[in-house]
Amino acid sequence: MTAAVDEKPVVEVETEEDKELQNELKLLVERTTDKDVKLIGPALDMLKYIIRTSTTSMTSVPKPLKYLSPYYISLKNTHRLMPPGPNKKNLADIISVLALGTAGGDIARKELDCLHYCLAGSMTNIGDWGHEYIRQLENEIVQKWSDEKTNEVLLPLIKDIMTFNCSHHAEIQGCDLLMEIDQLNLLQQYVTEDTYERMCLYLTSCTKYVDVLEANKIMDLVAEQYMKFKVYSRALVIALQSNNDKMVKEIFKICKDKVILYQLAFICGRHLYQVEIEPEGELSEDLISILGNNHLSSNFLAFARELDIAEPKTPEDVYKTWLEPTTPYFSIVGENLDSARQNLASSFVNGFVNAGFGCDKLLTTEGSSKWIYRNKDHGMLSATASLGMLHLWDVDGGLTPIDKYLYSTEDYIKSGALLALGIVNCRVRNECDPALALLSDYVINTNTTYQTGAILGIGLAYVGTAREDVLDLLSPIIQSCESVEILGITSLSCGLIALGRSKHGTITNILSKIIEMNNNEQLRSPYMRLAALGVALCYMGCKDAIEVPQAAMDVFEEPFRTMIQTMLQMCAYSGTGDVLVVQELLRIVEEKITCRDDKLRDKFKKDANHKRKDRKNNLEWDYCMGQAVAVLAVAAVSKGEEIGAEMVQRIFGHIGRYGEPVVRKTVPLAIALTSVSNPQLAVIDILTKYSHDSDDDVACNAIFGLGFVGAGTNNARLAAGLRQMAVFHAKNPSQLFMVRLSQGLLHLGKGTMTLSPLHTDRQLVDPVAMAGLLVPLVALVEPHSLILGKAHYLLYSLVAAMQPRWLLTLGEDLQPLNVTVRVGQAVDVVGKAGTPKTIAGIHTHSTPVLLTAGERAELVTDEYIVYSPTLDGICVLKKT
After folding, report:
1. Each residue's pLDDT tens digit, 859-873
2. Where is each 26S proteasome non-ATPase regulatory subunit RPN1 C-terminal domain found (predicted)?
3. Does 170 lie in the same domain as 28?
């Protein structure tokens, strides 16, 4: 063993040069008080020269500043007694710089000496004193910025600092200064072609951490700069982020380049944002077609052929039962106990896996109706509706194979065909309006089975369009319907159609009908959750606009009141990452729920402790329902902001351990929502633990959550885990049904699709996709009452969120164009110096390319110009 050596502090040895410098500085300081005025000026000039030319390392103070620090107080006194003139200003400059170091100590920083003497000095070439000096001035300006008189004095100095920052690669520092003093309007004069990209990127990233008014101000400024430098696609992204209709119209009006207009239309089509194009010539026809997503089916099929995955898959190919561990006899018996439910699961799996491919081995072959009849009653509805998934986006080719089922004598098959018609038209705008023409008669039919399929179908077909004629068709049904199921489905469809448009007529209709049932047993129906969600969807992305409707909801009893108010917050702030809203929602989750009287409280406890046999028909109040929805809302709000989404994961862990039973059921769903189509190992592990929970509902939701997390990724680890779960839950029909569903979602579109609402390099949150995700999640708050009951068809609302996860490059003629690209994990380059690499772990591919969550692409050569903000989705390229 060796003895420990005591570390002695390193003593700096002074050289002859250092002693000479000290003597020189001492002499110059003495000269500043000399009686001969002619000697003071040269002495001050020499002091300034020595300080400016001194070199330093990152870890030490320049020697002149260190040696002058003992004279700091005497220099201040000299300055005070000195008559006004150039000498006094030069001395003020020197004192200002000395205040930067250790000379002035805490008193100098407290009295803001650096800024005070800078203002008293010559105020010329302040950048010559270096970056650290500028940074200290900025800090003190922020502290001093208050009253108007001071502000006028500071403005010239701020302008000098901004000029220095923008010419010395410190633009980010300048942006921070102007944001701190609320003077961003000054920024425009300093933005140049070389600096606008870094500054705009930084300012955009800051919008997540400021209030709504400040964020809108920053967004407008950024969009203005992009427009100034004719980067229209980035300006459009900013306009869509701030939901600015006027700006979107202006961008389309100003832009004259055909290729750029195509690219703008593709971005709006992906976001399902409606832009009015005046029908003039061939260009406008192309733009209308792109905005209506009419190209989607043909491009997707060409993409499938390119990847060689056009061959249809059966549910057995997905389950891979031959890979499952050997199953004991009793497990096989258990699996076959509920064969109708397993057939229903296979119908969903078949639809999800072959979605958009137009062919399968169960429904589009000869004798396809045999498969439909292997399902029972309401199961036939979902089995027939899966035809819509197979022909997804293909309006022209999909209507004919579905049409023959409209003549069926079986009500459920006919209803399923009506829903399939709506699914085919989802996210696609066709000038012939086939969905409205075919479904409108059945919407007002007296047969509630037909109505169910037709109403949900029309909601999915016109999701996000806010079409008045479609809403007018559904409004009378809300007013006259007596069935709670029809009210729930109709309200939900109205919410999907009027998404985020605050259509007051629609909202009033739904609310007045719910108020009629306020003191009625019907209000306790699970379908009333869908009605409440319908109202909330009308306010999707509206933020502060929900204050009045939230107050109006006070007329309802608990827990319905908290539930609908929380849904409003969930939709209004969905994808914003607003920290204050997340905190408010967590407060709702923490609250201790109290019932109105002791009898109700006792009854509630009894129901929570003893599972009722007839859960499907249980209409008792669950007083924690509002808290359950609040957990989902936390996930929905934090969705658009990566750091927030990571932070809430830990909070969900605590809620899962200590929350009420109904709140625990929603925790796996909330965890899944924060990581849709992004199978992170940590998330998979948490959900796998929950999937073996003793509470059936928690286990069911966790299994479905695994499908959500892996949707469309073909993740091998997750696939193996689900196969093991199929064996583990072989005797439990509900859990096994969920395992099969998750296996179908995992292989969504044979691994070519995603459910993630984030697109365009995760800058935009698609409200239509968000709505499509929220419907099944809200329905699964009590899984046995809807999804595992008779309302399994609600799972088809996921079609609103389904999109190919591709990079497809097109030429100027909108035909596929193969180019070589580098693909890798996206790197956050906000505020980084120089030109850092934007992707890491690079692989080279030829387009079209499948992109996974968090990946980004860039062109290998400069042969083509890219007009998209980033290479993902559909990009139009122009030869250089």
Report:
1. 999 899 999 988 889
2. 830-879
3. yes
